[in-house]
Amino acid sequence: MSILCAISNMLGVPVASAFKLGPELVVNGEFTDDISGWDDFYEHGSATWENGRMRIEPSVNSQSLQRQVIPVEPGKTYFVTGHIDARCSEVYNNVAGRLSINDATDAHLLTLDQGNKQSGVVAGMFTARADSVNVDLHGAAVAEGNVTFFDNVSVREIL
């Protein structure tokens, strides 16, 4: 499948790039009916389904992390997208919502953030170094009621 994607370069200027993508690797990244397929890694707060999105409400002064381990092939490059809605969250470090890709040693391969009270699509690429990666969805809170929503989380190989 060929799609046209807008990706920011190092200067933050949109750069159009067309490329073919392989099949979807994330299970239930659209959260159509529930949040099955995701594991509560930290158990600091709650993750629930709300109107077709994952709703993460961390404990105060903490973060909640939902994880899915997916298979990849070392040396291949993957395209990651997701929608992060952090409009109901405000934290001290201005990283209210995060979609990250980490390998088994928790080495960060890609980190995509939304700051306080921000919402939008995030996109990036990473090259796999092992045969699986962790897809992590983080929500952070400094006050009760800080909530971050995730939707349309996708990881696909660039062919």
Please tell me about this protein's structure:
With 159 residues, this protein is mainly β. The chain has one domain: Jelly Rolls, CATH 2.60.120.260. 0% of the residues lie in helices and 62% in strands. The N terminus is likely disordered. It has no helices and twelve strands. Strands 1, 2, 4, 5, 7, 10 and 12 form a seven-stranded antiparallel sheet that branches. The termini are close together. β4 and β5 form a beta hairpin.
Short description:
The protein is mostly beta strands. It is 0% helix and 62% strand. It is built from no helices and 12 strands.
Annotation keywords:
five-stranded antiparallel sheet, 159 residues, single chain, Jelly Rolls, seven-stranded antiparallel sheet, 0% helix, mainly beta, disordered N terminus
Termini gap: 9 Å
**Rg measurement, Å:** 15 Å
Q: So, CATH architecture? A: Sandwich
H and E string: EEEEEEEEEEEE
Overall pLDDT level: 84
Q: Might you state the CATH topology name?
A: Jelly Rolls
Task: Give a quick account of the main beta sheet: strands, pairing sense, barrel closure.
Answer: 7 strands, antiparallel
Tell me the fraction of residues in β-strands, as a range.
Answer: over 45%
Total individual domains: 1
Tally of contiguous helical segments: 0
Number of strands: 12
Overall geometry: globular
Q: How much helical structure, as a percent, in the residues? A: under 10%
Please report the first level of CATH classification, the CATH class. Answer: Mainly Beta
CATH superfamily: Galactose-binding domain-like
Query: Poorly predicted ranges (pLDDT <50, ≥5 residues)?
Result: 1-16
Structural class computed from helices and strand pairing: mainly beta
